[in-house]
Amino acid sequence: MVPINILLSPEVTTFIQKNKNASVAELMLKMPSFAIDAKWVAAQIEGLQKATNKLPLWAATTNIIYPIRLSMEQCSSERTGQYKASLIQGNCVVDLTGGFGVDSFYLSKSFKKAFYIEQQEDLAQIAEHNFHVLNQSTISVLTGNSDEVLKSITDPIDWIYLDPARRKETQKVFKLSDCEPNIAALQDFYFGISTNILVKTSPMLDIAEALRQLKSVKEIHIVSVDNECKEVLYVLDKNFSGEAEYVCVHDYKKVLHSFSFKTSFENSFKADLSMPLTYLYEPNPSILKAGGFNSIADAYKLSKLHASSHLYTSETHIKDFPGRIFKIKTRAGYSKKEIQACVPTGKANIQTRNFPDSVETIRKKTGLKDGGNIFIFATTLKDSSKTLLVCEKYSEV
């Protein structure tokens, strides 16, 4: 059982607030004696620190309880939770992998009734407490094996949501069949209960591999937040049999930017190639993850520097491009003397796109330090030449 009453006692809450910005590792060495395991107190401080940016509503709400385990690392952020809630709605939703409860909380706002299911009783107890504190009363908390609990729900279910967890955390690349619940094996069972399924996966999962394992995928939403790809969502409709649409979503500074395409067009259209012109364009992480390399060139009438470089160029500025835009100052050869002449400050932000050497190797060879206002893209051009494009940032979406 979670010692909620003790964690909310004046003695403990005062200590937590006093040390909310302290190093948890250092606190553990000099933690006062409380009536509970010190790990619970440390978890509250660590959870509050992580929630400040990831879950500001939780961080700003009094009496929230945080778990000891990895749930805070693995849970959705507030912004990605809100995005998921914007995709689906209806009378009843079931979250098969409740965890800390962020997705259940936001999904419940789009439904009249929501069921949160979690195998770990401690997590379920924490989530139920937090739902009450956050005044979200439409969520029913259930514990046990998700498949068995799902069978016991008598309400008609509009949507099933799940965020399968990897069984082997050491794997760098994984399949849906490596996860629990095993959606690849259970999707027919789920479709027997609901015609709609929403699946969340890590960006580490290969999308093509997921599509080989999933049926009736209607949409694939690749979600990035502030230039970092966070998750991939698969919208499954039992009655859908067409081509899935890729929706690349970038939440940049709390403003959503979206770009959509289909694989059939992506594979049939070939972008024009060009040597570097005045402006350089780098698509946001969602587009790069989705592989919409030719589609983005067509949509914004841009040319690629090389078929495999995934950098784009134009003579005139193209507004509202979903990514970063740079103005090219000059091209430099791959030599210390030449690049240092172009960067007198000795500092630059270096990125590689279709280039044989790593950023670290380039820094050693050129002597450039990290930082400053100059951006260097080490890449390959249409004529197969290797070059360093010295740029300054023009805008970002």
Explain how this protein is built:
The structure is a single chain. It is built from 17 helices and 18 strands. By secondary structure, it is an alpha/beta fold. Strands 3-2-1-4-7-9-8-10-11 form a nine-stranded mixed β-sheet, with helices on both faces. Helix 9 (121-133) links the parallel strand 2 and strand 3. Helix 7 (78-87) packs parallel to helix 8. The relative contact order is 0.07.
What is the compact description of this entry?
Helix content is 33%, strand content 28%. With 397 residues, the chain is an alpha/beta fold. It folds into 3 domains: 4-66; 75-242, 3-Layer(aba) Sandwich (Rossmann fold); 267-396, 2-Layer Sandwich (VC0802-like).
Supply the key terms.
397 residues, alpha/beta, Rossmann fold, VC0802-like, 3 domains, 9-stranded mixed beta sheet, 18 strands, 28% strand
